[in-house]
Amino acid sequence: MADLSFYVGVIGNVISVLVFLSPVETFWRIVQRRSTEEYECLPYICTLMSSSLWTYYGIVTPGEYLVSTVNGFGALAESIYVLIFLFFVPKSRFLKTVVVVLALNVCFPVIAIAGTRTAFGDANSRSSSMGFICATLNIIMYGSPLSAIKTVVTTRSVQFMPFWLSFFLFLNGAIWGVYALLLHDMFLLVPNGMGFFLGIMQLLIYAYYRNAEPIVEDEEGLIPNQPLLA
């Protein structure tokens, strides 16, 4: 069973890496146009926060090194995305974005890690408390693409819900859900199980509106915001 969980975890790592790399095209466009246009940085900021805390959880929890490795990569990738965004964001939004980055990517992780280490004396309690925090953040992360559903339904256009992002989020939830079952880790099982079902919902909506006639067309050919996962 331990060997099986290792191989499932490796597959989960590969899929998670693909999820983390899915916004590369978006940020390449930002660099080319030297502007963030109407993109929002919050999904990437939240994913960076989640990845950072999951990395810590994997480090302090015995047998969860596969969780720490992939989320360590995710934290690095999301850091690059956030830095690119800060470099090209319009001046009118720069200060607000910096404040959010400092609050969610610096202050909150420091408070969460320091708080759990201070409040709980034994390693198991610290691991459980951090797992609860990470699971809550993961549920929010998996639900973030659902914000595009209203726009998809209104415009009848799936350009507001990128297929590959939804597909890899679906696979990510499924694989890590199986991994959690094998290790009996409820902190991984609950958010990834929800991610699996939310992924199915997104793919069904994509399939329904894939060939629909759009009500409105996107001006200047701009690609809308892409929420991300870790």
Automatic annotation (TrEMBL):
Transmembrane domains' residue ranges: 6-29, 41-59, 65-87, 94-116, 128-149, 161-182, 188-209
Subcellular location(s) of the protein: Cell membrane; Endomembrane system
Family matches, as PANTHER family: BIDIRECTIONAL SUGAR TRANSPORTER SWEET16, RAG1-ACTIVATING PROTEIN 1
One Gene Ontology term, aspect cellular component: endomembrane system
Topology of the protein relative to the lipid bilayer: Multi-pass membrane protein
Keywords: Membrane, Repeat, Sugar transport, Transmembrane, Transmembrane helix, Transport
InterPro entries assigned: SWEET (IPR047664), SWEET_rpt (IPR004316)
General function of this protein: Mediates both low-affinity uptake and efflux of sugar across the membrane.
Family: Belongs to the SWEET sugar transporter family.
Protein's name in the database: Bidirectional sugar transporter SWEET
BP-aspect Gene Ontology terms: protein homooligomerization
Transport among keywords: yes
GO molecular function: sugar transmembrane transporter activity
